[in-house]
Amino acid sequence: MTRPIIVFDLDGTLIDTAPDLMDSLNYSLSAAALPHVDAPAFRRFVGNGGRVMIERAFAAQNKPLPIEEHERLLDLFLDSYTQGIPGKSRPYPGVLDAIARFENAGYLLAICTNKYEANSLALIEALGLSRHFAANCGQDTFPFRKPDPRHLLETIKRAGGDPAEALMVGDSQTDIDTAKAAGIPVAAVDFGYTDRHVREFDPSAVISHFDQLTLDLAHRLISAAK
User: Fold this and answer.
1) Contact 136/154 with Cβ under 8 angstroms?
2) Cα–Cα 20 to 30 A to 209, which of 45, 58, 90, 218?
3) How many whole angstroms from its chain centre is CA 175?
4) Can you list the alpha helix ranges (DSSP code H) found in 32-84?
5) C-alpha span between 72 and 67 (Å, rounded)
6) Is residue 157 within 8 Å of 183, Cβ to Cβ?
7) How far is residue 185's CA from residue 80's CA, in Å, rounded to a whole number?
């Protein structure tokens, strides 16, 4: 019998990476002589990787962003972020207990993120969590990325799981749209990186703490999707 699998988004779902992402974004914006982004405003920019964050920051200032400048600032962002791993990033409350809960119940665990694979691997390794995940797939692991459902489906395949026995856990419309397109139920955390409440995107369930990601909830959502 195929083991059930939980596939997690990374930033804003498993790990609170906002402090380090914001520092790296501001480092790149300084090089462009743009104002820094503060914590309350950061939610408008975060998500879908550093390239998109830089685009959104420039758009918020109504500033043009030539391709060459975009590439230069992205390199600065990535250099700053990579050199700082793990920095201030930490698992959200209840993550470690949830990992243990599902592992003890025989679930596979995987990560499907739009962070670059090398950075996702490095962060999970630096936090001492690598052994828990059967696959850790980033935006450059395959020739497609979320919200393309193949990103999720290929992550499940790489982990040795079955899409019919899978649950996605994420924090954004991108995660929810990806799971829906793949025909997989999705539990959305409401403490992640989005400026709209995840309930607006109609996930299968909403949780406010990882203590609410129970075996019973996972079983019910996976069963209901069959």
Assistant:
1) no
2) 45
3) 8
4) 39-42, 49-60, 67-84
5) 9
6) no
7) 35
In the chain, count of helices (H) and strands (E)? Answer: 9, 8
Residues serving a catalytic function are 9
Spatial distance between the Cα atoms of 63 and 201, rounded to a whole number of angstroms: 30
Nearest-angstrom CA–CA distance, 97 and 143? 33
Residues 11 and 100 in one domain: yes
Residue with tokens 């069963």: 223
Pairing of strands 90-91, 108-112: unpaired
Q: Which domain holds residue 154?
A: 5-16+89-224
- Report which secondary-structure segment, H or E, holds 186: strand 186-189
Among the candidates 50, 84, 118, a domain finishes at: 84
Do 11 and 57 share a structural domain?
no
Per-residue pLDDT of the chain (226 residues; tens, 9 = 90+): 689 999 999 999 999 999 999 999 999 999 999 999 888 778 777 767 788 889 989 998 899 999 999 999 999 999 999 999 999 999 999 999 999 999 999 999 999 999 999 999 999 999 999 999 999 999 999 999 999 999 999 999 999 999 999 999 999 999 999 999 999 999 999 999 887 899 999 999 999 999 999 999 999 999 999 8
